[in-house]
Each structure stands twice: as structure tokens, then as C-alpha cells.
């Protein structure tokens, strides 16, 4: 039987710069980016986002709504 502790706090650590101080981390999803499926802080998220193709950027609601 699996024992899963639901109260266990996740460690919010940026996958790229490894900061644990960021107040917000975002799950970065992409098919091609090297930071795909990583939890990134705001700064790293923006940098990873900028590496995406326009087509990929358009799959993100906040980007598409700016157009
Ligand atoms: Zn970071």
C-alpha cells in the first residue's frame, strides 16, 4: 500500500537558477524548450518564454491576449 503524505510541503525551487526565495514559481510547459515541464521563477520563466517560437507563445493565454 502506498503511503502518500498530502500535507508534505512541496519544495518550491526554481529548476533553472535553483532559487528557493522566489515568491512565485510557474510551471513551464513546452514541447521543445529545454526548460519544458520545469518549475521556474518569474525571471527564468520569462527567459525560457522568450526562447519559444511565436507559435508556441500563442498557446499561452496571456501572450495571445496581448495581440
Ligand atoms: Zn529561476
Plain-language structure description:
The protein is an alpha+beta fold. The protein has one domain (10-60). 25% of the residues lie in helices and 12% in strands. It has three helices and two strands, in the order E-E-H-H-H. It has helices at residues 42-50, 54-57, 61-64; strands at 25-28, 38-41. The protein has a two-stranded antiparallel ribbon with strand order 1-2. The longest helix is centred in the C-terminal third of the chain and has 9 residues, at 42-50. The N and C termini lie far apart (50 Å). The mean pLDDT is 83. Bound molecules: zinc ion (ZN). The site of zinc ion has 8 residues, from strand 2 and helix 1.
Quick overview:
The protein is of the alpha+beta class.
Describe the SSE topology.
Elements: E1 25-28, E2 38-41, H1 42-50, H2 54-57, H3 61-64
The structure holds zinc ion.
Amino acid at each position: 500500500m502506498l503511503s502518500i503524505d498530502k500535507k508534505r510541503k512541496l519544495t518550491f525551487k526554481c529548476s533553472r537558477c535553483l532559487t528557493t526565495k522566489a515568491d512565485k514559481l510557474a510551471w513551464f510547459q513546452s514541447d521543445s524548450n529545454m526548460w519544458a515541464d520545469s518549475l521556474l521563477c518569474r525571471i527564468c520563466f520569462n527567459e525560457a518564454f522568450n526562447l519559444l517560437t511565436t507559435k508556441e507563445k500563442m498557446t499561452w493565454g496571456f501572450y495571445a491576449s496581448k495581440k
